[in-house]
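Entry for the shared binder. Reason: the reviewer on the internal report wants the predicted structure included alongside the sequence.
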Amino acid sequence: MKKLVFAAVSTFAIASASVGHAEDAQAHGYLIGNYKITDQAVYQQYLDAASPLAAKYHGTIIVFNLTSTALEGQPGPVIAIAEFPTYADVETFYNSPEYTEARKLRIASTEGTILMTEGFVPPQQ
């Protein structure tokens, strides 16, 4: 029964995602951070420097949680996800002079992982 419910929920989630992106054929870009903070004072400097930058580069912070709950594995407690119109926009933001400077503060104050990825675009029918 659990498998049937999971399959039904998964199918609904995929169908719902398809409806939401049907007219948007280009995948959005995402910058995903998962880490733990090792120096709170320097991390606050990073937040102060980086917070206004995503919007400047057409991004939106869609997830930011300092105490996420791990269900599997050993991820850090911080999860941050920024969505951009395209993958190229993520690259432009990440490599911008402003974020390059702010990034030094994050690197100095955290341990973890930062990923860039494209979102899912269902096949057009």
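Summary line for the report: The longest strand covers residues 29-37.
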